[in-house]
């Protein structure tokens, strides 16, 4: 008979993180549920990393029976329910145990888990309008550190395709050269402020006219607050919905470049866009009628119907 893993074992906890990650990626990253499930993934990884040293380190020390439970020993206390240490305490333990886990990693975990607590214990919805650039690069960085501590990898947690995307996020966060874009923004801002009110107004009107939604994602320029365009690449799977008008496709896009016609600002590269506050993913939505979506040739379809004899005598 196969032995069942202890529920506080690193293997059991990592397996749960994998299941939570599957549910997480059933949603697009612009959906609040994506952020909520990411917090559940994070907690299981923290617990698994602590348990990797010993499940005993998960125990709430207020009751010694929790230590016995972690060791797999019989519990004599009646109606005993094992209790692990709080996630706040476990964060302190993983910071001491994991060699590559930094104070910055810990600070992110605290803030992300606070969002989770606010989501499940209050009427707030902290993940509802949380831009991806504000947390995803840090989230994937922490996942990378913790999976390696457990003896796993981003591939075993997320699968190879998502792991590749995660590493792009991690590299963008590490790109110190991207901070130079702030100097570019400051230079353009000085030039913009040197224009007359009339010149600024005319430039904003031109930008609004030229920056059409079907060319890219419209956002405010960090220099002049005019309408600029983000261009991006598709990440994740397309989500399809059917409504009364036909088929709706939604695709999450990760920004790759930005251009503002009004002040001339151009930014290329995801890491630079993150540094300039323009790194949030956005959703590209396409609408199709059933005929367009399935590429039905109406004339050919009618001819085919006329050639068939479906009458019964």
Record keyword descriptors for this entry.
single chain, 313 residues, alpha+beta, 2 domains, 6 strands
Report on the structure:
- Residues 301-313 have low confidence and may be disordered.
- The chain has helices spanning 10-24, 32-53, 65-70, 87-97, 103-121, 136-150, 154-158, 160-174, 181-193, 197-210, 270-275, 290-293, 298-307; strands at residues 217-220, 227-234, 239-243, 246-259, 266-268, 282-288.
- Strands 1, 2, 3, 4, 5 and 6 form a 6-stranded antiparallel β-sheet that branches.
- The protein has 2 domains: 10-174, no CATH class; 178-293, no CATH class.
- Helix 1 runs antiparallel to helix 2 and helix 4 (87-97) packs antiparallel against helix 5.
- The chain contains 13 helices and 6 strands.
- Helices cover 50% and strands 13% of the residues.
- The longest helix has 22 residues, at 32-53.
Describe the secondary-structure layout:
Layout: H1 10-24, H2 32-53, H3 65-70, H4 87-97, H5 103-121, H6 136-150, H7 154-158, H8 160-174, H9 181-193, H10 197-210, E1 217-220, E2 227-234, E3 239-243, E4 246-259, E5 266-268, H11 270-275, E6 282-288, H12 290-293, H13 298-307
Helix pairs in contact: 1-2, 2-4, 2-5, 2-6, 4-5, 6-8
């Amino acid at each position: 008979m196969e032995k069942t893993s202890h529920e506080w074992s690193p293997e059991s906890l990592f397996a749960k993180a994998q299941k939570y990650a599957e549910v997480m990626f059933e949603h697009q990253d612009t959906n609040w549920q994506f952020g909520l499930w990411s917090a559940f993934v994070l907690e299981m990884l923290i617990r698994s990393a602590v348990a990797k040293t010993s499940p005993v380190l998960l125990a709430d020390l207020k009751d010694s029976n929790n230590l016995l439970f972690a060791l797999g020993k019989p519990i004599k206390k009646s109606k005993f329910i094992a209790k692990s240490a709080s996630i706040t305490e476990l964060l302190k333990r993983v910071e001491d145990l994991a060699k590559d886990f930094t104070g910055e990693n810990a600070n992110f975990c605290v803030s992300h888990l606070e969002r989770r607590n606010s989501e499940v214990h209050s009427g707030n919805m902290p993940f509802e309008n949380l831009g991806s650039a504000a947390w995803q690069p840090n989230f994937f960085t922490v996942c990378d550190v913790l999976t390696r501590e457990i003896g796993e990898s981003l591939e075993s947690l997320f699968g190879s395709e998502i792991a590749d995307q995660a590493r792009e996020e991690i590299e963008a966060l590490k790109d110190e050269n991207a901070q130079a874009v702030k100097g570019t923004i400051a230079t353009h801002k000085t030039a913009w402020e040197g224009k007359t009110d009339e010149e600024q107004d005319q430039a904003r009107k031109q930008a609004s006219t030229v920056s059409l939604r079907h060319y890219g994602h419209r956002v405010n320029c960090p220099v002049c607050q005019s309408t600029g365009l983000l261009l991006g690449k598709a990440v994740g799977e397309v989500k399809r919905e059917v409504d009364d008008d036909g088929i709706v496709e939604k695709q999450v896009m990760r920004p790759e470049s930005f251009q503002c016609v009004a002040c001339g600002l151009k930014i290329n590269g995801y890491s630079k866009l993150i540094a300039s506050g323009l790194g949030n993913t956005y959703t590209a939505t396409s609408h199709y009628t059933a005929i367009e979506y399935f590429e039905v040739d109406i004339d050919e379809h009618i001819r085919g119907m006329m050639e068939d004899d479906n009458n019964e005598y």
